[in-house]
């Protein structure tokens, strides 16, 4: 998303898993005056995942990046302990790095599309931070709900 978009200063996603629920977060930052444009770009990219499969190259790059991060984190004792606690809390056991790698390698484009579709079946929570005058350009929550509903209708 950052490629060729000089006005976007950061784009990120992460998740927080718990035994019976989870939280998926997409965040972004832009240079002043581009908040509405950033919001539109984030929605466009996320919703694109449910209708257009990512390329094999993008999927492989994402898998390699995730596996690299996992194996680098296994080298830091504090992150290893945090990961172990999280996995035991959620799964009742800890996956090895090799098992995590095998699971990541098994992810398909269809898996990603299915997961994004599932995310879109719930109402999002939207938070914006910035100067008050810039935040006024954002639409109200019902506009976001309608935007997502329109996408759901197009996808069937």
Count the beta strands.
Answer: 2
Numbering strands along the chain, what is their spatial order in the largest sheet?
Answer: 1-2
Question: What's the shape?
Answer: globular
Distance between the termini: 26 Å
Mean pLDDT over the residues: 86
Q: Please summarize the sheet with the most strands.
A: 2 strands, antiparallel
Structural class, please?
alpha+beta
User: Helix tally?
Assistant: 7
Count the domains. Answer: 2
The radius of gyration computed from the alpha-carbon positions, rounded to a whole number of angstroms, is 18 Å
Which residues sit in consecutive blocks of at least 5 with pLDDT less than 50? Answer: none
| Pattern of helices and strands | EEHHHHHHH
Share of helical residues? 55-70%
Please state roughly what percent of the residues sit in beta strands, choosing from under 5%, 5-15%, 15-25%, 25-35%, 35-45% or over 45%: 5-15%
In short:
The chain is an alpha+beta fold. It is 57% helix and 12% strand.
SSE topology sketch:
Elements: E1 8-17, E2 22-30, H1 35-51, H2 56-73, H3 77-91, H4 97-105, H5 109-119, H6 132-135, H7 141-155
Give an overview of the whole structure:
The chain is built from 7 helices and 2 strands; from the N terminus they run ββααααααα. It folds into 2 domains: 1-52 and 123-156, no CATH class; 55-111. It is globular, with a radius of gyration of 18 Å. The protein has helices at residues 35-51, 56-73, 77-91, 97-105, 109-119, 132-135, 141-155, and strands spanning 8-17, 22-30. With 156 residues, the chain is α+β, with helices and mostly antiparallel strands. Helix 2 packs antiparallel against helix 4. A two-stranded antiparallel sheet has the order 1-2. A hairpin with a 4-residue loop joins strand 1 and strand 2.
